[in-house]
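SAMPLE LOG
Freezer: B-3
Tube label: C17
Construct: single chain, 118 aa
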Amino acid sequence: MTRDDVLAHCAAQPGAVEDYPFGEGLAVFKVGGRMFALVPLEGSPASVNLKCDPELALELRDRHPSVRPGYHQNKRHWNTVDLDGSIESGELGWMIDHSYELVVAKLPRAVRAQIQTG
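STRUCTURE (predicted):
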């Protein structure tokens, strides 16, 4: 996946909002007002920060050299994934979906219902 692919995948999540609270160089994707992905718009290789279950985060870091503790994030709950082509698009898409689903699961029931009904 390229940076543009990641941006498109994040934006396609139900209820996702793209925001720039940290400046124009960092796209932040939120659902229900909470972050699920951060995508720096410059730099090579491109990267994305994704929320992750803590145990799964450790497994992914062990399995993939391009996955490391979240840069400027809570290292237990966030991973930074380099978009260097070493992770298949399907798996990276799953990581984005997992991050989104973790955030949605913690939202109040009324907010979740509103997102699901569009």
